Amino acid sequence: MIAIIVYTTSMNCVHEGTNFTIQTVLAQLGSLIIATISGKQAGAFGYTGLFVIEISMATITLVCLPDLYPEE
Length: 72
Description:
By secondary structure, the chain is mainly α.
C-alpha cells in the first residue's frame, strides 16, 4: 500500500515514462539486493547479531541527522 503513495508522489516530481520506470526498477532492485545481503548477514551473525547491527546503524543515523540537516 505504501508503494502506491510513493509512486504517486514520484510521478508528480519526475517526467512521465522513462524516469519513473527507472526509479521503480531501481527501488525493486535495491530491495532485492538488501534482502540478499541481510539474509547472508543473518546466516553469519544470527538474527540477534543482525538486530544489533540494525540498531547500531539506526543510532548512528539518528546522531548524524542534526549535522546533515542543520536548522537555518
